[in-house]
Specification:
about 325 residues, Methylamine Dehydrogenase, Chain H, four-stranded antiparallel beta sheet, mainly beta
Length: about 325
């Protein structure tokens, strides 16, 4: 994968930048994309496309225009323009997670729709050309009877698109849905929140080298923990949890997660504790971690990608 094979890129929502780190030792290598480059206001999903340019879904938080998907030179970070514009047909209001298929179709989780009142309106799952950003259609989620607020996406080994969905009207709910990326049709509810798995407000999801599905989940209340949940990748059966904080202690939660070198799980930490802004590197078998990026460099890290992260499956 050339020039970007040894780098880790992380969107920092505290100052609307993308920062770059050495993928082996975590050393900070500087700001790769500044907030003034392409007018970043809420960087979310990060992937590299098939010609080695960085794509960033930009939510345009508190801006008058819709969100968009921006494109940057993969070597220099220079702004190359909007791939998906804020004003085009099918523009996303609040784009979040993104993936790019092997056939160069960009799938975008548009978390919610524009609303004239204070109540959030359900979002959409959208498809665009990865070449020119042309709108290709909206996924049909009519077979799902819950509120559709998609947060993140990944393509599984079965070729289906897995989508994390949360419920703003009942934060203790949460789902992972499956869609056919070719027909844009709903397939099924793969995982649903229950008293066993305690899936709350899911966001980042990624398949591990072990074939299992790892999902971020947030605490229900002060007597709960923020965590990563692990599900069997073929059946959706709950396996275990990896707690990110402790009851009664400062919060440490993750919006997005990603596997990287040596099969380790990289977890950017947000919250209100002393390790906010750090990136942990987990051995998922033991649940132990080391601090890959210490606090102080990143303010509020969210989505991330390595140079040789697969833009469809997010595998390393």
């Amino acid at each position: 994968m050339g020039i970007r094979s040894d780098f880790l890129y992380i969107g920092d929502t505290s100052d609307d930048t993308v920062k770059r780190f050495d993928a082996v030792n975590g050393n900070f290598l500087g700001t790769f994309v500044t907030s003034s480059s392409g007018s970043l206001h809420g960087p979310r999903g990060l992937i590299f496309n098939h010609v080695d340019n960085l794509l960033v879904s930009n939510q345009n938080v508190e801006q008058p225009q819709n969100g968009n998907v921006l494109q940057y030179n993969g070597e220099t970070g220079a702004f190359l323009g909007e791939l998906v514009t804020s004003i085009q047909e099918g523009a996303s209001f609040a784009p979040r997670g993104i993936v790019l298929s092997n056939s160069n179709v960009l799938y975008v989780a548009d978390i919610e729709s524009v609303s004239s009142n204070e109540e959030p309106q359900p979002g959409e799952l959208r498809a665009y050309s990865g070449t020119n950003g042309a709108f290709l259609g909206i996924f049909n989620h009519s077979g799902f009877n819950g509120p559709f607020f998609p947060r993140s996406v990944v393509i599984g080994t079965d070729g289906l698109l897995y989508v994390s969905v949360f419920n703003p009207f009942d934060p203790l709910n949460g789902w992972v849905l499956r869609f056919n990326p070719h027909t844009l049709e709903f397939v099924d509810v793969f995982i649903e929140s229950n008293s066993v798995n305690n899936l709350h407000r899911p966001e980042g999801l990624v398949f591990g080298p072990d074939g299992n599905l790892y999902i971020t989940s947030f605490r229900a209340d002060a007597d709960d923990t923020d965590k990563i949940l692990v599900f069997e990748g073929k059946t959706g059966t709950f396996i275990k949890k990896i707690d990110l904080d402790e009851v009664g202690e400062p919060r440490a939660f993750a919006m997005a997660i990603l596997f990287g070198p040596e099969g380790k799980l990289f977890v950017p930490i947000s919250g209100n504790g002393p390790d906010t802004g750090s990136v942990r590197r987990y051995d998922v078998e033991s649940g132990s971690f080391d601090v890959f990026v210490p606090p102080g460099i990143l303010g509020v890290p969210w989505y991330l990608t390595f140079g040789n992260t697969d833009p469809a499956t997010l595998a390393y």
